[in-house]
Amino acid sequence: MISNERPSYGNRPFGYSSPKPPVNEDTLKTEKIQVERKTFIVTLRENPRGRFLRITEDVGGRRDSIILPATGLEDFKKVIDEMLKASNETPQKAA
Predict the structure, then answer these.
(1) One pLDDT digit (tens) per residue for the chain, 95 residues
(2) pTM for the complete prediction?
(3) 31, 42 in Cβ contact below 8 A?
(4) How far, in Å, CA of 56 to CA of 45, rounded?
(5) Are the beta carbons of 51 and 28 closer than 8 angstroms?
(6) How far lies 35's CA from each of 18, 24, 38, 57, in Å?
(7) Which residues touch 31 (CB under 8 Å, ≥6 apart)?
(8) Is 27 left (phi over 0), alpha (psi -120 to 50) or beta?
(9) Which DSSP state fits 70?
């Protein structure tokens, strides 16, 4: 075998791994926010590993999410508060 060749392990597509079993998650609270053409769904959930916040952005049917462990919510809130303060104190540039 040439040094840059890798052995074949069957016809699995790139990035394939065995399916993971579903994790039971409980929804504790959900809020929806409409900002211009974007919809944000903020959901507090819990599973056997702990609580977390899922923030989903929906733009025209395309969804992207971030997940934040509950242990980071206070730090996340502090940063959001700082950004809000900076936004209110800084004048907007004319378009």
Answers:
(1) 455 565 555 566 666 677 878 889 999 999 999 999 999 999 999 999 999 999 999 998 899 999 999 999 999 999 999 999 999 998 888 77
(2) 0.71
(3) yes
(4) 13
(5) yes
(6) 38, 31, 5, 10
(7) 41, 42, 43
(8) beta
(9) G
